[in-house]
Amino acid sequence: MNRLKLATFIFIAATVNAVNAEQDRVGGTLGYGEYGRPATIDPITSNDMIALRLTELIFNGLVGINEKQEIVPDLAEKWEVDKEGKNYTFYLRKNAKWHPKGADEPQPFTAEDVVFTFKIMAHPKTITPLKVRYEFIDTVEKIDNYTVKFVLKRPILNALAKFTFKIIPKHGPNNTNYLTREDPFVQRPIGTGPYMLKEVTANQEVVLIANPNYFGAKANIAQFVAKPFADQNIMMQALTFNAIDMIVTVNPRNLPELQGDKRFVLQPYNALSYAFFGYNVRNPMLNDARVRKAFTLAINRDEMLKSFFNGQGTVISGPFAPGSWAYNLDVKPQPFDKAKAAELLKEAGFQAGSDGILEKGGKKLALTLKVPIEKENEAVKRVVLAFKNYLKSVGADVQVSFMEWQAWKESIFAQHDFDIIFASWVFDDSADISSLFHSAEIGAWKNNFGGYTSPEVDGLIVESKLTLDHEKRRTIYRKLHEVLADEAPYTFLWTLTNYSAYHKKVRHVSIHPYKFFPYASSWFISGDESKI
Amino acid sequence: MTQYAQTQTTVSEYSELSILQRTDKRDIAYVVYGIVILLMVVCAYLMAIFGWLPHDPEEMQLELMLAGPGAPGHLLGTDFMGRDTLPRLILVIKAYFVPGLMYIAVAILLGGIFGILSGYYGNKYETVVTYITNIIDSFPRLILMLLVVAAFKPDIYYIMMVLGVTNAPLVSQLIKGKISMLRQKNFVESAIALGIPDARIIFKHILWFNCRSYLIIQATLGMGEAILLESALSYLGFGVQEPTPSWGNMVQQGANYLLQGQLWSSTIPAMAIMFTVLGFYLLGDGLNNMLEGKRQS
Amino acid sequence: MMVSRSAKPVVLYLTRELYVTFFLLIGVSLVVFAVLYSAPGDPLAAVFGGQVLSDAQREEMMRNLGISNTWYGQYWSWLVKLFNGDFGTSLRSGQPVLGEVTKLAKNTFYLTFGAMFFSLMIALPIAIYLAKRGTDRLGWVLMMFAYTTSAVPLFWSAYIVIYIYTRFFNTLPIGLATGESMNFTQMMLPVFMLGLGSGIISETVRFLRDEISRVFSEDYVRTARAKGVSVWKHALTEALIIPVSEMIASKIPFVIGGAIIVEQIFNWPGIGRMAWQAAQDRDYPVIMCITLVTALIVRLTSLLQKTLYVIVNPRASQETKTS
Fold first, then answer.
1. B255 part of contact set with chain A, CB < 8 Å
2. Does C39 touch chain B (CB under 8 A)?
3. CB–CB of B291/B211 below 8 Å?
4. Does C279 touch chain A (CB under 8 A)?
5. Could you tell me which residues are beta bridge partners of residue B71?
6. Where residue A264 falls among pLDDT bands split at 50, 70, 90?
7. For position B293, what pLDDT does the model report?
8. Do A413 and C171 touch (CB under 8 A)?
């Protein structure tokens, strides 16, 4: 991950020179608003972002990622990799202690816990989204109390970055074979991290307090409180009326309001994600790359970005987030060009019918766009409605159909019963797109939902998988980017800049684009608000 | 919906005066207001059907989103996509119209069957019908609707179907009450003695002669309820979905900007809801007093 | 027959009704189950969320979780567990459902009955005024007020109230604002809002107005009043206690429905919010439990009302069968 040079993390510009003594920084409570509440708070069974953020405060991994996106020691002090790249030996730190379980004394962290974590993760009865991610690990072995060895099934590129998974204690869960959501541990987790769970209140706020026994630098802020909201408008009001100090992701519609408010800092962070319209090439009309390209040309992405997202984002041209090393900056996004779009459609054999809708061989260019419903889907609504309008002006008739989320998922991924979808991919920290466009990934519940096939793309993907050389892989990805931009299995839209908003009394804030809180222990709350 | 019917004691069949003479002027005013609203609804329906709209309801002006009334070219302002509010308000009627009629039909049909089974045919069916209607009555309506809509599809037909079923117990109770009142007067017994077939007694004498005004009133009040429930569902994200406009989703989409001080785009559809529902309430009141010849003090 | 009539009718009535309530709750659970079962989509999505599984893996998972393949198998195992006092665990959080629901149900209970009380406080005076004085100028204004509050969408009026409140007092009137120590307005505003906006004021006014004027126009009351005999006790029972209790019993489901909205807006931790979340997640043990709890509240309220009716009017125990 240290190669993520293009990542554009902008850190708070406010200098901290006004702060004189360390002592000033310690203490205070930071209440932050979350839209919804986490199902579980352990790192294994949880599958929502709210829980992911909390586990970032409570737990540690073997290795961590610093603000420059470099791998740094965390629970492991150092590590060794053999020449083949299959054996990873981690030497663990000896001063780490688990949070106290109930009234017990804090227990020391050992190699047993690491082995235990992996075993529980891999157990067939444990339901966890991590399983797929860590199937490349073959065995784990405890060498001594503070040394563990991982054996991989095959060498993979950048494997070290994957050892950021969180370690849970052996004495934590009641069931030591596998972890289910019924285990009390998932609601009352104990970890090694800078914060420990104090309680979940009757109002369902999750209260974390600083861990006095933390092995690293002690956290400044004494208490973190995650407050659940069921209405984003109210959450926003809660920030402006000081009921909370921070919002993790500000809804784009509230940006103008906050930009004018001197009390708050708006901090951008790039998420490794992008939005797109995906086409089902099983539909013969969409099987023609010219049609897909025409659609891309017919929509005004800049205008949408400006009107709906306050201009906070970057229009993209290919299948990677622009913050990623794989993104090919030489491929420029196609500008809005309605005339060219009409021309391409004509070239593809479409003629205007009597009602203004294009036809080919007696069949109308009428397509269904399926979108999942969320309560807060306003931005989605805007984009798809605008899309419908843009395409109407070039003679394509798009029917927008909002569906319940499960039903949507099933009709896209299992039944493939759609023409167009609007969705986003979120990348964790690799830029692996092989499952999205390879023809072997066509089928029920596989990621190539559109059924896109291209021998050239298949070849490039296989080639990129075989190489362990980063530069070579980058060259292949740049080529892949170029091909996919031209073939347009998706209309690539944009990567949005997320904004976190917080009260200016919170200082030294740096944010991880995906996990959000890894650096939270160095944040602090200034008692003196005038010193800005 | 209110149980008006149970409170009726006098039937003004013997009144010499015509219906207009013996009703209070205020009731006539209510009915007139209600009828005006109804006429507007019908007009809007026709306008929507034939496409006589003052503005293209789909056209977006992205540089003019959430404009207040009186913005250039937009009499009632624009919504969150820069679309003109007025034609969308009108289009809503079209989206509501047929499902609304279906809702009333389901409520009356199902309620009618229940009511006649338990009221006319009596003991045999009464226990079963009471059991079923009690089950339906035990659900908070919004929860049942949320459940159905989240499980299947946020479609206005599903919403109206659930509403129809949940209103059936009330209709059944009204009809049953009416029948037992007629029985007390030996009306039913004498009809049977005269050899009039059951079907004719039920449809002509009971339902048509004696229940129609109740049913009309219930339907009126029910429409108001339907509009409000749809808007509640819209807030929860499970109302009528874009691009079909509904007053509920229009208020909801505008309300996202309400706390920022952009009041208009939710207030205009909210006012449309208010005047219409008020119209239904007053129409129901007026009709009740007029048709049932009831007047306090 | 004579025995049963002279025996305590209330006790008899109650036993019979509780019996019926039991079967009703079974029916309610069956309806909910049927809806959930026939819904398209994966019922276990909440558990498998984020994972793409093959059919074989899914089967295996279901076997591990002890979930039957058939609908009657699933319903039966749920029912058997229920009779052992086990409502199951939430698919989403893994917590025992009954504990979570009862913890939040008391908040909802407080909200709904508070709101009910509040709307009666508004509706009763208006109804009495309208019944006694007819629709004069003030009466008309009062009536229009009652009707208007019930004619606007609840969530919109709640937003408007919050908007005005924040502009005037510069704080947000929601529970979370101060955590544990909510002040009086923060506690009462959601209750007021639900009482005002759940749509029951207009109907209460209408119903009570008609009932009161009916009782006062009955012959014996008129005669008694003309003779100067006091009939207030009878009139109170007939015109107020019975209709008001009837109103409460029949409108409770509406107020609980409105509570879903108010809980979302005012961040009130209650079962309405939980129901909304569970409906989205298809968390069927939670949905089943919440609908059963609300159905129980509804049934018990109506039972209470009928008991009251029987106490006030013992002859009625023979007439009110199961309805």
1. yes
2. yes
3. no
4. no
5. B74
6. very high
7. 59
8. no
How many angstroms separate the Cα of A497 from the Cα of each of A190, A300, A323, B180? 33, 19, 11, 69
**C42 vs A: CB within 8 A:** yes
- The verdict on A237 touching B (C-beta cutoff 8 Å) is yes
Contact B179, B120 (CB under 8 A): yes
The partner residue sitting opposite A234, judged by closest CB among C52, C54, C174, is C174
Alpha helices (H) in A17-82, listed in sequence order = 49-58
Q: Is the peptide bond before B243 cis (omega within 30 degrees of 0)?
A: yes
Residue B19: per-residue pLDDT: 64
Which amino acid, residue B98? V
Looking at per-residue pLDDT, the higher value among A408 and A11 belongs to A408
What the block records as the tokens of B268 is 């205009």
pLDDT digits (tens, 9 = 90+) for A55-88: 999 999 999 988 877 889 999 999 999 888 889 9
Which residues lie closer than 8 Å to A305 by C-beta, 6 or more apart? A311, A312, A313, A315, A494
Closest partner CB to B242 (pick from A254, A402, A403): A402
β-bridge mates for residue A196, sequence order: A209
Q: For chain B, what are the domain ranges? A: 25-53+66-292
What global pTM score does this model have?
0.88
B81 contacts on A by Cβ (under 8 Å): 382, 385-386
What is the structure's pLDDT at B1? 39
CA distance B197 to chain C (A): 29
Q: Regarding the domain with residue range B25-53+66-292, which homologous superfamily does it belong to in the CATH classification?
A: MetI-like (1.10.3720.10)
Strand partners, A359: A351, A364
Instruction: Return the residue of B nearest to A385 by Cα.
Output: B243
Element (H, E) at A56: helix A49-58
- CB spacing of B236 vs C261 below 8 angstroms: yes
| pLDDT > 90: percent of chain C | 18
Residues A97-142: tens digit of each pLDDT = 999 988 888 899 999 999 999 999 988 888 887 877 788 889 999 9
Closest CA to B88 of C111, A385, A325: A385
Chain A nearest-CA distance from C293, in A, is: 19
CB contact under 8 A, B260 and A254: yes
What gap in Å lies between CA B57 and CA A355, rounded to an integer?
A: 18
Least confident of B58-72, C65-79, C123-137: C65-79
Q: How far is B249 from chain C (nearest CA, A)?
A: 11
C173-184: average pLDDT: 57
Instruction: Report the alpha-carbon distance of residue B183 to residue B161 in Å, rounded.
Output: 32
Residue from the list B2, B127, B266 with its beta carbon closest to the beta carbon of C156: B266
Please, are residues C245 and C308 in contact by the beta-carbon 8 Å criterion? yes
Q: Identify which of B130, B224, B236 has the shortest CB distance to residue C322.
A: B130
Q: Is C179 an interface residue toward A (CB < 8 Å)?
A: yes
Across A319-383, the runs of DSSP E, i.e. the strands, are 351-352, 358-360, 363-364, 366-372
The Cα B268–Cα B289 span in angstroms is 32
Q: Is C322 within 8 Å of B258 when comparing Cβ atoms?
A: no
Model pLDDT, residue B7: 40
Does the CB of C293 have a partner CB in chain B at under 8 Å?
A: no
Greatest Cα-to-Cα distance within chain B, rounded to the nearest angstrom: 75
Task: Supply A398's token pair.
Answer: 């798009």
Structure confidence by residue, pLDDT tens digits, B116-158: 888 888 777 888 888 899 899 888 888 888 888 888 888 889 9
Contact C155 B255 (CB under 8 A): yes
A158: left (phi over 0), alpha (psi -120 to 50) or beta: left
Q: Tell me, what's the pLDDT at C316?
A: 54
Interface contact flag, A410 C41, Cβ < 8 Å: yes
Most confident of A508-522, B252-266, C60-74: B252-266
SS3 A501: strand
B137 to C253: CB separation less than 8 angstroms, yes or no: yes
- Name the token pair of C213: 């004027």
